[in-house]
Amino acid sequence: MSTPPPLHHLFHPAHAAAYADAMHAGVDRLTEALVGATRPATGRSPEAAERLVRRIDLDRPLGDANEALAEMGRIWLDDAVWFHDPGYAAHLNCPVVLPAVLAELFVSGVNPSLDTFDQSVGGTFVERHLVDWTAGRVGLGPDADGVFTSGGTQSNLQALLLAREVAREHHPGLDAGRMRIVASQEAHFSVQTSARLLGLDDDAVVGVATDHHRRMDPDALATALARIVAAGDVPVAVVATAGTTDFGAIDPLPAVAGLCRSFGTWLHVDAAYGGGLLASQRLRPRLAGIERADSVTVDFHKTWFQPVSCSALVVRDRRRLRHVTWRADYLNPRVSHGTQPPHQVDKSLQTTRRFDALKLWMTLRVMGADVVGSYVEHVVDLAREVGDLLADHPDLELAARPQLSTVVFRHRRGAPADEVRARLYDGGTALVAATTVDGERWLKLTLLNPAAELGDVRRLLDRVAAEGDDLLDEDEAVAS
Question: N or C: which end of the chain has fewer CB within 10 A?
Fold first, then answer.
């Protein structure tokens, strides 16, 4: 007879006191780290970070939560990147709102899975209600539906899978080699990776030129669609972007939707970044035309200030979701009598799936969408003010007027963007991103902190200018 395993680590009513103690200790440690974080990063190198982790023997447990918390601090938390710090302006990471963090306690503690009704019960309907609410904000109509996903990449993949299957219905016997997906040259790279995962050739994604605002050019789109059809190929989908990663550009959705209708092509709008405008009464008009999409990606863990992961795909016609449905006898069989239970797995690429919808639910019930919208408005307004500042800056050059909350710029005297960025990281006082624009490297600010003010960003820019000057002075000294 085998020895029973030790059960005192289980989340179980018998261990409620131990659970409370562990949670309190964790909250204390996290709060201590939060209060003590005086800069966005420590600048620890990859080599040093790896050494700290690799020396841990995972076959020798510590046996004590407090010791494990202390160790966790040494190998990760003490060097964590803090997105709430005004010096952080690199990627599309946001500080998170408290109601969503509170929800995480229950998401992880109860650990429901949103694949079938009998594993989630009310959670099924929380997610469905939020999907309906999101589709209503988009304006997709009464037949809309959708599902929560792990992020924009998964949402885009699922949308293009649906588009592929609809194209096959309309063109029986359609070969994958004849399928084309059209997107602007500024579209997210997940369009290309999705095409590859769907079995399409690397040249299946047709890039369309953009205008001087980095938005998809409708004339170029019309030409591309006409050429695809003339070649005997099929445009299975057009991906319009509502908030490009670098410039925050929103493609001209009404014009794109009109062309999609003319060519009988699925319109997918990737609003992973710009979807937060749905929460703002003032900025919502920038998404005019999104209501004509066949599918829309919204990342709540970007401009809705939710913890990762929290995203959704919504579609105009719920019947299209059948293309991802598969019946498994052990999981979601079709019942022969009575009412068919609602199973979210019937709409999802995932089986086991976290109850991430609870985070957005708690946010809306505590704060409301208008407060979220005010946060979005603040970061968009802040980016505009920073753009005004850079337009007249003596040491820094602006690439283009900000459209959402990203700002692309560089050092006027030509200090290498990646070297400036690396020096900022090493110092730990500021984190910025870098990107390539027309073959040249530029720096980029991604402003997603509602607590940041213009003075904070001005100080960050001063650091960029100073680091750039120092680099050039050092190079000149070496050269002389």
Answer: N
pLDDT tens digit sequence for 314-361: 999 999 999 999 999 999 998 888 889 999 999 999 999 999 999 999
What are 244-257's pLDDT values in tens digits? 999 999 999 999 99
Do 346 and 382 belong together in one domain? no
pTM beyond cutoff 0.90: yes
Q: What order do you get walking across the sheet with 145-149 strand by strand?
A: 145-149, 311-315, 295-299, 266-271, 234-241, 179-184, 205-208
For residue 457, what are the domain limits? 369-479
CA distance 107 to 211: 44
Q: Tell me, what's the pLDDT at 359? A: 98
* Distance from C-alpha of 37 to C-alpha of 35, rounded to nearest angstrom: 6
Q: How far apart are CA 386 and CA 445, in angstroms?
A: 10
Do 353 and 205 fall into the same domain?
yes
The predicted pLDDT at position 401 comes to: 96
9 DSSP β-pair partners? none
Torsion sign over Cα 99, 105, 110, 116: positive
Taking residues 138-164, report their average pLDDT.
98
Nearest to 317 by CA among 267, 358, 359: 267
CATH number of the domain where residue 378 is located: 3.90.1150.10
DSSP state of 5: P
pLDDT band at 477 (very low <50, low <70, confident <90, very high): confident
Instruction: Inform me whether the pLDDT recorded for 480 exceeds 80.
Output: no
Q: What's the half-sphere exposure (Cβ side, CA atoms, 13 Å) at 337?
A: 0
Question: Is residue 234 scored above 90 in pLDDT?
Answer: yes
| Domain shared by 320 and 205, yes or no | yes
pLDDT at position 337 is 82
C-alpha closest to that of 213 among 175, 247, 263, 253: 247
Kind plus residue range of the DSSP H or E element containing 88: strand 88-89
From CA 219, how far away is CA 385, in angstroms rounded?
32
Count of positions (residues) in the chain: 480
**Of the residues 338, 366, 394, which one is the last residue of a structural domain?**
366
Q: What's the total number of domains in the chain?
A: 2
* pLDDT at residue number 336: 82
| Token pair listed for 397 | 């050059």
Q: Is residue 305 situated within a structural domain? A: yes
Is residue 360 within 8 A of residue 304, CB to CB? The reply is yes
Average pLDDT of the chain is 96
- Over its C-alpha atoms, the chain yields an Rg (Å, rounded) of 25
Residue pair 158/191 in contact by the 8 Å Cβ criterion: no
Rounded to a whole number, what is the largest CA-CA distance in the chain?
87
**SS3 labels along 117-179:** HHHCCHHHHHHHHHHHHHHHHHCCCCCCEEEEECCHHHHHHHHHHHHHHHHHHHCCCCCHHHE
Unique residue bearing structure tokens 């002075």: 473
pLDDT at 1: 73
- Please answer whether residues 241 and 251 qualify as being in contact, where contact means their C-beta atoms are separated by less than 8 angstroms: yes
